[in-house]
Structures are given as C-alpha cells and as structure tokens.
Design a protein that fits this description.
Blueprint: E1 4-10, E2 26-28, H1 32-39, E3 46-52, E4 66-70, H2 76-88, E5 93-96, H3 98-102, H4 104-107, E6 113-116, H5 123-131, E7 137-140, E8 163-165, E9 168-169, E10 172-173, H6 184-188, E11 193-194, H7 197-206, E12 211-214, H8 224-233, E13 239-244, H9 252-260, E14 263-271, H10 275-280, H11 291-300, E15 304-311, H12 320-330, E16 335-340, H13 348-355, H14 381-395, H15 398-404, H16 413-426, H17 455-464
Parallel strand pairs: 1-3, 1-4, 2-8, 4-5, 5-6, 6-7, 9-12, 12-13, 13-14, 14-15, 15-16
Antiparallel strand pairs: 10-11
Helix pairs in contact: 7-8, 8-9, 12-14
This protein binds cobalamin.
Cobalamin binds at residues 13, 15, 17-18, 28, 30-34, 36-37, 54, 68-70, 72-74, 94-99, 115, 118-120, 168, 170, 175, 182-184, 215, 217, 243, 339, 344, 368-369.
Length: 474
C-alpha cells in the first residue's frame, strides 16, 4: 500500500537572502518553519517531501495526501496560486506561517485549513481531522508552546549544497522589544520562551552541519540564558552566528563567551542612525551614539557585524541614504542589508499608515522590503526607491569593500568575502517597478494571533476588525 505523503512547499520569492546567487547557492535557507512542521509529523504514518521553490520547481504531479504551504507576506500570493492548483487537483491544502496567521480568513479562500501561530500543539488534531476527511477551518493552540521537548527539525530534508547557511537552530521564541514594524511579539509573545540548553546543544550537534545560524528574534534578549548556551557550546567546534539586539552586544562578558564558543558574526537590527526615528518605532534599546564603538568592540573579539537598516521612516529626509552608508563604511560594518520600511499587516506601522491614509498598494508580493507600498512622509516613493538602490551600490562598491575588508585581526575573512560578494550581486536591483502601483484595499482586516499590549495598538486592531472576534491569546 502506498505510504501516505505530505508535501511541504516554500513558495518562491525574490529575496536577496534566499535566491540562488553564486554556485547555485542561496545565502540562507528559508525553511525553519517547514522543518519544524515536518519534525512533528509522525514518520510511521507519513512520508514528508519538502520543496523550496526558490531553488527547485514544484512537482505538481506528485500524489500527496496533504499539501502544506508556508508563507510570509512577500510570497503568500504565490502560495495561494500553488494552493488553488493542488485543490483543483483534489489534494487538500493547509497553510501556515506569518501571513496566514495574521490573515487566516484570506488564506481560507485558497486552503482547506490554516494553522494560526505555532503548529506543535495542534498537529495531531490536524492530522486526525485529515484522516477523518474533516480537516477544515483554522487550527490554533490554546497556549504558547513551553519550548520543552521540541522535536528535532527535519534537517535531513534539506537539499545538500544549495545554501551557504542551511541550518537555523532556535533557542527561544518571542521578543520583549515590541518594535512597531515587527510581527514577532504578535506571533510569539512579548516574553522570551527558552528551550532547555541540553536540547539546544543536542540539536546543534545533530543538525548535520558545524555551521549554525541561531534564528531567535533576539539571542541576547536577556543576559543569563545566552551565556548558558555559549558556555555549553565551548569546545565543540561549532561555528555560529545569531541575530541580537545592540544592548548586550556591548557587554564584554557576553562577547568573550561568544568568541570562545565559535561566534563569527552577529546580525543586529540597528534600523536607523537617528535617535528620534528609533524612538518613533519603539526601538528604545538602540543608541546611535554607541553604534561605531559597538562595531569596533565586536571586531576586537573577531566577530563580524551584519548591520540591518531600514529606510522610509517618517523622520527620514533625502540625506538619510548617504549619511547612513557613509557612517556604515567609516565604522567598518562587515555587511549591511538595507530594507524599505514595509507596513506588514497587523503591525502598528500598518495601522498608523492606514489611519493616515498613506497606504498605496496591498499587493502582498510587493511586501518584500524592496518595494515602496505606501506614501513616505518627507520624500516621494521614487526618491525612496532610488536612495535605497544607491545605498546598496555605494556600500558594496569596490572602494568601500577594500576599506572595510578585515586585512588584520581575527574575523573570518572567507565568510566576509562570501557575504559581501553575495550581497553585492544580489542587491543589483534598481528596478523602476520598485514603486508598487496603487491597488484596492482588501475586504478582510488582519487579526494578529496575539493581541498587542499597547492600548492604542490593541484598539486599532479591534477597530479595524470591526470589533469582531479577537485572537484568544493576550
Ligand atoms: C530567521 C528569520 C529569517 C531567515 C529565515 C528564517 C526561516 N524561516 O527559515 C532569513 C534570514 C532567511 C529571513 C529572510 C526573510 N525574512 Co525573516 N525572519 C526571521 C525571524 C527572525 C525568525 C523566523 C524563524 O526562523 N522562525 C522559526 C520558525 C520555526 O517559526 P515559523 O516560521 O513561525 O514557523 C512556525 C509556525 O509559523 C508554523 N508554520 C510555519 N510555516 C507553516 C506551514 C504549515 C503548512 C503549517 C501547518 C504551519 C507552519 O509552524 C512553525 C512551528 O511552530 C523572523 C521573526 C523576527 N522576529 O524577526 C523574521 C521574519 C519572519 N522575516 C521577515 C521578512 C520580511 C523576511 C524577508 C522577506 C526579508 C527580505 N527583505 O528579504 C526574507 C524572506 C526570505 C524568504 N522567506 O525567502 C518578517 C515577515 C513579516 C511578514 N508579515 O511577512 C519577519 C516576521 C520579521 C519582521 N520583523 O517582521 N528571515
């Protein structure tokens, strides 16, 4: 008898982080969500097939008992196309991930079922319903996962030699920052939920790679737990990088442990060099006057800095692009990613833009942080697009790369070169259609899986949802 098959699919998107650039490799695999889904599917009942459409075509003829599609906003429209095609063939479809979690009713127009938020506590019910022919509607856990006993993501399903960074390991979920443009606290809560250190280490030791990316929203969110992880990592020969916030990344005790335990790079959401802009988006943890010293300090420990910046904030005028890039070059940032501010559905930035009637496009494919979908405050969409493209051009220009190259010191020169060459090539965009054309407003309002705590944000969510049924958590 044919074993039952679940086909998990990550739709294609045009992201410079996940599209193949050199040697048919992408800088990152975007599959942490689906590998976690696959991890909790019983192997004795189902065979799992995984397709990342960024690197390979989808086999629409593969006979499956269920198709599972993961989606961020930037590629949910492609996800809907794929869902429609499989359902037309009679194959049941379930969707999950950030966007379907924030807009479940929209996703249910294309899928039989939607998992809102974390899958681990609802997968059994979902599969039982599937076997009973009753899988439909939304599936949502009645509490956040305690992060203990999480199954090992199915790293064995990853195609070999297709990603520079193939392995993401989570040590926590949630984030207490509450930045207005970010979806994390609305998806995973404002409290950090930590995994037991021994479970984290076991996963790192068995993930099939000695190079690991920690995909916490903020690995340095609180002082003690990351220290426990780093102490346990010491002497294991694992090379790691992580996303952290700037505050504890200046702490010598943290950095010493990081360097001793194999850390080669930290991605930091600096967002802006303007203090008032950072205050306006509630990223109070960042202090621009400390940024240059922070980069220098990490370099003294042999750790590279991947700076994440955003353009298009209300406080940004036309000088922001050159000022930011000059600062990044003078401070010797190892790599930078520049995003166009994107009002993701359900974030406070979304409600603020809507309230001010500054939304232009609701074409989700444009929500990839490389297109302008709203009316900026102090510049035209065209000026924002051109400034964004020029920032990449100047930061990854040969003179800048020569100046910033770690000619001396302990930083990982090969990794430095890979990031700069990949980003330089992948960022060559400058396309006029980066200005998203106006579209009609969708007839459905987003509903964040977890209600924001901030009163004005909470009120905006419920008002936009027409006072309808809110999420049950928070
Ligand atoms: C690490 C990370 C990345 C990694 C890849 C992560 C990955 N998914 O493999 C990299 C660096 C590649 C990346 C790239 C991008 N990212 Co990113 N990323 C994150 C981060 C920090 C953690 C995501 C993660 O790994 N979670 C761990 C997994 C286990 O959780 P999960 O995906 O939610 O999956 C769970 C559930 O959602 C559910 N589930 C998920 N999929 C499915 C599918 C089915 C069928 C089912 C049943 C359940 C299910 O089950 C899982 C387990 O419970 C988040 C959050 C944050 N705080 O910033 C941003 C975040 C997801 N990224 C974001 C964005 C915008 C991007 C980019 C578009 C940026 C860009 N300019 O290119 C690209 C897109 C790349 C792509 N997908 O091709 C946004 C998405 C917002 C939105 N509404 O879409 C976030 C929320 C950041 C933010 N601040 O808002 N990212």
């Amino acid at each position: 008898m044919r074993s039952r098959i679940i086909h998990l699919i990550n739709p294609k998107t045009d992201s410079l982080t996940t599209r193949p650039v050199y040697l048919n490799r992408a800088l990152y695999s975007p599959l942490a969500g689906l590998l976690a889904v696959a991890a909790c599917i019983p192997r004795d009942r189902y065979e799992v097939v995984l397709t990342d459409e960024n690197i390979e075509p989808i086999d629409f003829d593969l006979k499956a008992d269920l198709v599972g599609i993961s989606a961020m906003t930037a590629y949910v429209n492609r996800g809907y196309e794929i869902a429609d095609r499989f359902r037309a063939q009679g194959t049941p479809v379930v969707m999950g991930g950030v966007h379907p979690s924030f807009m479940p009713q929209e996703a249910l127009r294309h899928a039989d079922a939607v998992v809102i938020g974390e899958v681990e506590l609802v997968i059994d019910r979902l599969l039982d319903d599937l076997e009973d022919g009753a899988m439909r509607g939304t599936y949502r856990a009645d509490r956040l996962h305690p992060m203990v006993g999480l199954a090992m993501p199915r790293y064995d399903l990853l195609k070999p030699h297709r990603y520079v960074n193939r392995t993401f390991v989570q040590t926590s979920r949630g984030c207490h920052q509450g930045c207005t443009f970010c979806a994390e606290p609305l998806m995973n809560g404002l409290k950090f939920r930590y995994r037991p250190v021994d479970e984290v280490i076991r996963e790192m030791e068995n993930c099939g790679s000695r190079v690991v990316s920690i995909n916490d929203a903020d690995f340095f969110g609180t002082p003690d737990r990351p220290k426990d992880v780093m102490r346990a990592l010491k002497g294991r020969g694992i090379q790691w990088q992580a996303g952290v916030t700037s505050k504890l990344a200046q702490d010598d005790a943290m950095l010493e442990l990081a360097a001793q335990s194999g850390c080669t790079m930290m991605s930091i959401g600096f967002e802006s060099i303007s203090r008032s802009t950072l205050t306006s988006v509630h990223k109070h943890v960042n202090r621009p006057e400390t940024f240059a010293a922070l980069v220098e300090k990490l370099h003294s420990y042999g750790i590279m800095v991947f700076g994440l910046f955003m353009f298009g904030f209300d406080g940004d005028d036309l000088s922001v692009f050159d000022e930011t890039v000059e600062f990044n070059i003078d401070a010797n940032y190892d790599a930078c990613a520049y995003s166009v501010l994107t009002p993701y559905p359900g974030t406070l930035t979304w409600y603020e833009m809507k309230k001010a009637n500054r939304m232009v496009s609701y074409d989700w494919t444009m929500y990839d942080q490389g297109h302008v979908v709203y009316q900026p405050a102090q510049m035209s969409g065209d000026q924002l697009r051109l400034g964004h493209a020029r920032a990449y051009e100047n930061f990854y220009a040969a003179p800048s790369m020569t100046q910033r190259f770690p000619w001396s010191g302990k930083r990982h020169r090969a990794q430095w070169a890979i990031y700069n060459l990949f980003m330089r090539k992948a960022a060559k965009t400058d396309k006029i259609e980066s200005i998203a054309a106006p579209t009609a407003e969708p007839d459905l309002a987003p509903m964040p899986p977890i209600l924001p705590v901030k009163r004005e944000w909470r009120a905006a969510v419920l008002e936009a949802a027409g006072g309808g049924p809110g999420p049950h958590m928070g």
